[in-house]
Amino acid sequence: MKLSIIFILCIFSFSTTSKETLRVVTENLPPYQIVKNNKLVAGTSYLIMKNVLKRAGFTSKIEVLPWARAYHTALNDKNVIIFSITRSVEREHQFHWLGTLRELKYRFYSLKSKKSIELNSVKEALNYKAVAVRDSFEADSLVKLGFISGDNLTLTVGYIEAWNMLLKGRADITYANVFIGDTIHKTLSFENTPFLKHGFTVEEYTLYVAASINTSNAILTKITAALNSLKADGTFTKILSAKEVQ
Questions:
Q1: Does the pLDDT at position 136 exceed 70?
Q2: Which candidate, 126, 125, 155, 124, places its Cα nearest to that of 139?
Q3: Sign (positive or negative) of CA dihedral 238, 182, 208, 213
Q4: Where is the Solute-binding protein family 3/N-terminal domain (predicted)?
Q5: Per residue in 20-46, is it b (16+ CB within 10 Å) or e — as a string?
């Protein structure tokens, strides 16, 4: 009788696990995730995660959402993978951190045409109006640095919108990692960048693949193993080193 009960429980457990669905969310964030015609088509992080999901045996579609929605989905729902997300002290215990995607250095950017803006310190930056994406790492960092939402900090729904606010003169500066800041002009259809990178690094962090805190151990193990295998066989480095990510 006991053996029968154990057998039934095992079957139920297996059935429950096998029916678990994985949701994968991200945002439009060139050059990591590139969206064209409302479809995710390219980007280093996208290609890495496409390979990770395939190796892990998942057929989940990668959903492109506004960052605040993607973030809150991963924060509150079960079995959700999110990328590319910056790891910070505030977020440390809110997610499972499955692996790194890229090292980041953060600086302030402004328009080259606004020659009056010269920044040599965070204190000087506080005198200008900044723009960042709502619920983003950048927005959180700016608040910690002393910026105040509704005063010298404006929040937007996406990164493209934030950079466009600089172009339209509705903000003076933005805060970005240099890989994005130095290449965003291509996404905005500029041959040469109209943005000036100011000369001091404010912070250094790392982009990660993360999972919602109540994600099953089976999913965590499969995704982590697949990502590690990409790094071990050189696929990860090859994707990051590609000059053109298609």
A1: yes
A2: 155
A3: negative
A4: 23-240
A5: eebbbbbbbbbbbbbbeeeebebbbbb
pLDDT digits (tens, 9 = 90+) for 81-122: 999 999 989 999 999 999 999 998 999 999 999 999 999 999
Burial status of residue 11 (CB atoms within 10 A of its CB: 0-12, 13-18, 19 or more): exposed
The CA distance from 156 to 245, in Å, is: 27
Structural domain 104-204, CATH architecture: 3-Layer(aba) Sandwich (3.40)
Domain 22-102+205-241 coded CATH 1.20.58.1370: no
Residue ranges with strand state E in the chain: 23-26, 34-36, 39-42, 62-64, 80-86, 95-111, 130-133, 153-156, 173-177, 195-197, 203-212
pLDDT at 7 over 60: no
Amino acid 166 reads L
User: pLDDT of 18-41, one tens digit each?
Assistant: 457 999 999 998 889 999 887 899
pLDDT given at position 2: 43
Name the residue ranges covered by the structural domains of the chain.
22-102+205-241, 104-204
| In contact, 104 and 86? CB cutoff 8 Å | yes
Cα(35)–Cα(28) distance, rounded to whole angstroms? 6
The residue with tokens 């890495």 is 48
Angle at 55 between CA 51 and CA 58, to 5 degrees: 95
**Is 15 a residue whose pLDDT tops 80?**
no
- Higher pLDDT pick, 161 / 13: 161
